[in-house]
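This part of the workshop introduces the protein records we will be handling. The question running through the whole workshop is how a given chain folds. To make this concrete, we reproduce a full record directly below:
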Amino acid sequence: VDAPNLDPKAEFSSLVIPTMDTLRTDYVLTKLLTTDKQVVLIGPTGTGKTLGISNKLLRGMPKKYMSNFINFSAQTSANQTQDMIDAKLDKRRKGIYGPPLGKKCIIFIDDLNMPALEEYGAQPPIEIVRQWMDHNGWYDRKLIGTFMNLVDVTFCCAMGPPGGGRNKITNRLMRHFNFLTLTELSDDSKRTIFNPIVSAYLGQVPNETKDTTSGLLVDETINLFNWVTSSLLPTPARVHYTFNLRDLAKVFQGMLMNDTKKLEGEVSIVRSWVHECYRVFRDRLINDEDRNMFDEVIIEKCQQTFGYSKEEISPNSVLLYGDILDTNDPKKYSEMPDVSKVKSVMEEALGDYNAANTAQMKLVLFEDAIKHCMRISRIIRQPLGNALLLGVGGSGRQSQTRLAAYLGDFECFQIELSKNY
């Protein structure tokens, strides 16, 4: 596999780096789809099923193929599924429907095994797909008794293994598919993916950084990820301790947000890396025991691998990164060592918010509140950044979100839940 040439300024979520596994899957997928075979990709979360198929269907197929994307959820019904597919097909002649003449339609169904089981254990959306597989069509719901034959249609599906909201699928449907299984990426594949990204990014840093730094950062992040996934396992009290490859990528995505002009030497790069590891992994931990254990591991890695002590990494014991001190447009994300400066900017923003809104927020910005606000601010400035805030009532989830949204010039919309929602 040739090493890719990356643009360091490209959007992180748009970077696609080929590995031996993805090239292999891509080749087999092309062969199956161009010979009108039904395909299902099976693999755990974060192995690139959706991204791989989307790239293939949108960019890598011959002109005569058109694609239709459907996402299954627990609430998807058979009628919705039928309507979504029918809407993309034209009537060719009586009883025969298909894509425009000369075209072929590939229908991509993501999360095939998500639909909830009905009373008798079947999954209605899956049964309607099975009806097409067995009989090449289904019945028109408006003209009772009229059978609709669907031609020039191929199904390509992706699903995770059963468990955690996903169900087992009937073998009557699965017998029609060709299976492609994606396994968890090996550590070598992870290095292949992340090494070029970090190297391209560190190439922009003005001061000389050792060539080995990017390799060490990637290796230590992978080791840390492996330790987290093996030591901090989900239990009934900590059901959200589910870490996957997306979390590993989020560490590097966070590092790439940094303003490279403000990084001075290796210590500031390592500091930025420690901060991102804290945000991605440590913020999910719910008790001091787990947090202290995580702190020990990361301090040990800093000392043994990079040779920096705890005091060098966080001189004033607070690691704050954000873009609220930057007055330029677009704002640059960088380290904010002066907590008092951050506090004054936030208090000013809070005053402006209260002046502009009738619902007043009377907040006292102590250190933890500032940290929480910066965490939320960091997530919402990332593309595809979503946050779930866990905490007891009155811990400031709503007010901190409103303040972080105001600081980032976002509009805050709140869904009002009512009885008949």
About this structure: The chain has 14 helices and eleven strands. The chain has a mean pLDDT of 89.
